[in-house]
């Protein structure tokens, strides 16, 4: 190995994971919210807004009021946080060995530099001690994570997941009448329609999306053990609960009044469980569509899947989008499950297990987003093979056995005679045997059914035995 290039030393750095290399383009929008740089920008935002909040509301006796120009300057520090600032903050952190402390020092540098922009009259260089006052790192971190996770979900993940689900719903509506042989336990079963089966999946996905959309993002800013101890002893005249609540709500979050040093992360666990459940329903969709492809019900357009199907078998168009989705959903769920189960526990008033754990939030959402993108692109490359659907239905007339049996029972209840043992009679005809159309009709004609019942059953075919399946798709509009 000594004669090989050391890839770890190359510039720009070589990505360790696939999300930051092969799949970068798909997951890049999450970088604005769930990257390390985005977290630091959010920390800077919290620190700036806390400074403005305290001075605006006169919480600290003797503290100066900031002018509109001062506030604009501070907020611009957050807005312009880019490559140079990320590098500078990194240098500070290498000295502090503490990420939140580095943000505090970074902001204080900007306070000192304010006169060059605002003039010598600005008070910003004199408010050093208000930066991070009464805050632990967790006061800043819990709010920053709540902001970044909320924005990632609402601005990136949810729109992508909803658009993909809408595609599934559109396919369901388009093929609401496409009769299809169902398979329960992998065996031929009562026919359905392709649209109805896709509608079931779209309905399930939408239910999980509603849960995710209803997430309550909690935050706190109450000190070292959640008691406002330093606050109350330093400035006893302030309504610290009111100040904290107003600040958390100013950030667009829900105030949590009862915490230890950490906000309890229960909302995170709830969110990650909901996203994982969405992932698992989507995984079910991917495996079902994969199976329909293998049965020939869907044809894949090569142009939509990629230029190469198999490296050695040129006739193949592999369902790679759905297989890729399965893999990424499984990885995402593994991470989300770990986040959900780990983050709800913190020893006594604080430990740091959540610190390392939360650094994987972006990865968990990245793999889910990648799967959503793959499913959407996979669905866009499918065509329904109506002939294949029809062939399968016509080869399985025995599935009408259920209809005949239940019609016999209903006729018996209505007073018809000779309808005894319908299940056993149908089992003798159909179990383990293929029955064709003439054979099924001959059997029906020999049952002695009432004329109207017999006529309905003799007119029945597997392709028309779909019940209310087509009309059930309308529930997607509920």
UniProtKB/TrEMBL annotation:
<keyword id="KW-0456">Lyase</keyword>
<dbReference type="GO" id="GO:0070626">
    <property type="term" value="F:(S)-2-(5-amino-1-(5-phospho-D-ribosyl)imidazole-4-carboxamido) succinate lyase (fumarate-forming) activity"/>
</dbReference>
<dbReference type="Pfam" id="PF00206">
    <property type="entry name" value="Lyase_1"/>
</dbReference>
<dbReference type="InterPro" id="IPR022761">
    <property type="entry name" value="Fumarate_lyase_N"/>
</dbReference>
<protein>
    <recommendedName>
        <fullName>Adenylosuccinate lyase</fullName>
        <ecNumber>4.3.2.2</ecNumber>
    </recommendedName>
</protein>
<dbReference type="Pfam" id="PF08328">
    <property type="entry name" value="ASL_C"/>
</dbReference>
<comment type="similarity">
    <text>Belongs to the lyase 1 family. Adenylosuccinate lyase subfamily.</text>
</comment>
<dbReference type="GO" id="GO:0044208">
    <property type="term" value="P:'de novo' AMP biosynthetic process"/>
</dbReference>
<dbReference type="InterPro" id="IPR008948">
    <property type="entry name" value="L-Aspartase-like"/>
</dbReference>
<dbReference type="InterPro" id="IPR004769">
    <property type="entry name" value="Pur_lyase"/>
</dbReference>
<dbReference type="GO" id="GO:0006189">
    <property type="term" value="P:'de novo' IMP biosynthetic process"/>
</dbReference>
<dbReference type="InterPro" id="IPR020557">
    <property type="entry name" value="Fumarate_lyase_CS"/>
</dbReference>
<dbReference type="InterPro" id="IPR000362">
    <property type="entry name" value="Fumarate_lyase_fam"/>
</dbReference>
<dbReference type="InterPro" id="IPR024083">
    <property type="entry name" value="Fumarase/histidase_N"/>
</dbReference>
<feature type="domain" description="Adenylosuccinate lyase PurB C-terminal">
    <location>
        <begin position="346"/>
        <end position="466"/>
    </location>
</feature>
<dbReference type="GO" id="GO:0004018">
    <property type="term" value="F:N6-(1,2-dicarboxyethyl)AMP AMP-lyase (fumarate-forming) activity"/>
</dbReference>
<dbReference type="InterPro" id="IPR047136">
    <property type="entry name" value="PurB_bact"/>
</dbReference>
<comment type="function">
    <text>Catalyzes two reactions in de novo purine nucleotide biosynthesis. Catalyzes the breakdown of 5-aminoimidazole- (N-succinylocarboxamide) ribotide (SAICAR or 2-[5-amino-1-(5-phospho-beta-D-ribosyl)imidazole-4-carboxamido]succinate) to 5-aminoimidazole-4-carboxamide ribotide (AICAR or 5-amino-1-(5-phospho-beta-D-ribosyl)imidazole-4-carboxamide) and fumarate, and of adenylosuccinate (ADS or N(6)-(1,2-dicarboxyethyl)-AMP) to adenosine monophosphate (AMP) and fumarate.</text>
</comment>
<comment type="pathway">
    <text>Purine metabolism; IMP biosynthesis via de novo pathway; 5-amino-1-(5-phospho-D-ribosyl)imidazole-4-carboxamide from 5-amino-1-(5-phospho-D-ribosyl)imidazole-4-carboxylate: step 2/2.</text>
</comment>
<comment type="pathway">
    <text>Purine metabolism; AMP biosynthesis via de novo pathway; AMP from IMP: step 2/2.</text>
</comment>
<keyword id="KW-0658">Purine biosynthesis</keyword>
<dbReference type="InterPro" id="IPR013539">
    <property type="entry name" value="PurB_C"/>
</dbReference>
<feature type="domain" description="Fumarate lyase N-terminal">
    <location>
        <begin position="23"/>
        <end position="325"/>
    </location>
</feature>
């Amino acid at each position: 190995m000594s004669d090989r290039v050391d890839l770890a030393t190359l510039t720009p750095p070589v990505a360790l994971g696939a999300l930051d290399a092969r799949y970068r383009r798909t997951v890049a929008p999450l970088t604005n919210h769930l990257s390390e740089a985005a977290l630091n920008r959010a920390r800077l935002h919290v620190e700036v807004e806390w400074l403005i909040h305290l001075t605006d509301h006169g919480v600290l006796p003797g503290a100066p009021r900031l002018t509109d120009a001062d506030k604009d300057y501070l907020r611009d520090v957050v807005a312009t946080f880019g490559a140079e600032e990320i590098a500078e903050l990194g240098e500070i952190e290498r000295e502090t060995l503490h990420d939140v402390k580095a943000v505090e020092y970074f902001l204080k540098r900007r306070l000192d530099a304010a006169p060059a922009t605002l003039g010598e009259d600005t008070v910003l260089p004199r408010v050093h001690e208000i930066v991070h006052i009464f805050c632990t790192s967790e006061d800043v971190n819990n709010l920053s994570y709540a902001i970044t996770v909320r924005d990632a979900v609402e601005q990136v993940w949810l729109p992508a997941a909803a658009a993909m689900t809408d595609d599934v719903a559109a396919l369901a509506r388009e093929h609401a009448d496409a009769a299809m042989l169902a398979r329960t336990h992998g065996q031929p079963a009562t026919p359905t329609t392709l649209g109805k089966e896709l509608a079931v999946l779209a309905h399930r996905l939408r239910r999980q999306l509603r849960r995710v959309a209803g997430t309550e993002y909690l935050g706190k800013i109450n000190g070292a053990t959640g008691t406002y101890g330093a606050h109350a002893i330093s400035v006893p005249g302030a309504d610290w609960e009111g100040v904290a609540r107003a600040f958390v709500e100013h950030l667009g979050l829900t105030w949590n009044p009862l915490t230890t040093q950490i906000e309890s992360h229960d909302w995170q666990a709830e969110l990650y469980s909901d996203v994982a459940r969405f992932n698992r329903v989507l995984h079910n969709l991917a495996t079902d569509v994969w199976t329909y492809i293998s049965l020939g019900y869907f044809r894949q357009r090569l142009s939509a899947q990629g230029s190469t199907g198999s490296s050695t078998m040129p006739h193949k168009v592999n369902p790679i989008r759905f297989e890729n989705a399965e893999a990424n959903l499984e990885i995402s769920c593994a991470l989300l499950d770990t986040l959900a189960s780990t983050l709800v526990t913190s020893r006594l008033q604080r430990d740091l297990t959540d610190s390392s754990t939360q650094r994987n939030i972006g990865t968990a959402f990245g793999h889910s987003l990648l799967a959503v993108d793959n499913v959407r692109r996979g669905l866009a490359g499918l065509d329904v093979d109506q002939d294949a659907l029809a062939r399968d239905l016509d080869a399985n007339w025995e599935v009408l056995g259920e209809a005949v049996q239940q019609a016999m029972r209903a006729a018996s209840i209505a007073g018809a005679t000779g309808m005894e043992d319908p299940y056993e009679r149908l089992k003798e005809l159909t179990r383990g045997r293929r029955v064709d159309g003439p054979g099924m009709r001959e059997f029906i004609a020999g049952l002695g059914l009432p004329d109207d019942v017999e006529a309905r059953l003799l007119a029945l075919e597997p392709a028309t035995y779909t019940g209310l399946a087509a009309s059930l798709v309308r529930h997607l509009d509920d």
